[in-house]
Amino acid sequence: MDPGKDKEGVPQPSGPPARKKFVIPLDEDEVPPGVAKPLFRSTQSLPTVDTSAQAASQTYAEYAISQPPGGAGATCPTGSEPLAGETPNQALKPGAKSNSIIVSPRQRGNPVLKFVRNVPWEFGDVIPDYVLGQSTCALFLSLRYHNLHPDYIHGRLQSLGKNFALRVLLVQVDVKDPQQALKELAKMCILADCTLILAWSPEEAGRYLETYKAYEQKPADLLMEKLEQDFVSRVTECLTTVKSVNKTDSQTLLTTFG
């Protein structure tokens, strides 16, 4: 066999084999045809990812972490349910006007509602038990329930904060010996700047709620003392400021000494 030929008789080139030339493109976008695609692609050539589809598969925890804490634009994803511990949005904020008493759903089934007849009322998502006006609210407490759960009213008063100027604690006395419990509640209301009102029946408690709502826009003239303008009445009022002088004595003094 001729050493210069292969098995099929094709002549082999003499001398060392020729080296292959490789062309490296300077621009990664200019890839010559017929060359294998590179293993790594530039981020500039990647297709844009649909952010809406990514946000849809994102959990609420991941969303909360990705948002700036307490930022102005941090909002809850659309359609997500409120987590445990979150308070739902209130239907009536302090300062908003309403012609009816806004009742919290936790008061559903309370016998007091049967006796609120002279003013309209409706259920609403509010923090107090009853919203009686723009700056007035009320919490209802049964002494029987208070004896079983003494810490309940503390948490309710703390949840009100300073959102309402007038905060009423309407207590229904439905136990035989209420003295000790009422003493503790009175001290608590003084410290919490809250008005304590006692009712001995659901009907009486309902009348208090009606009265607060009915007199929401009334001036304080009905509660103020009316001063007579005539001379005799004003002198009588002046003389009766002395403890030992009554109206009869003042009339006698006026008759005697003019």
UniProtKB/TrEMBL annotation:
Residues 100-213 form the ERCC1-like central domain. InterPro entries: ERCC1-like_central_dom (IPR047260), ERCC1/RAD10/SWI10 (IPR004579), Restrct_endonuc-II-like (IPR011335). SUPFAM superfamilies: Restriction endonuclease-like. It comes from the Eukaryota. One of its GO terms (cellular component) is ERCC4-ERCC1 complex. It is found in: Nucleus. Keywords: DNA damage, DNA repair, DNA-binding, Nucleus. The keyword Nucleus applies. GO terms for biological process: double-strand break repair; mitotic recombination; UV-damage excision repair. GO terms for molecular function: damaged DNA binding; single-stranded DNA binding. Residues 1-23 are annotated as: Disordered. The keyword Iron-sulfur does not apply. Belongs to the ERCC1/RAD10/SWI10 family. This is ERCC1 isoform 13.
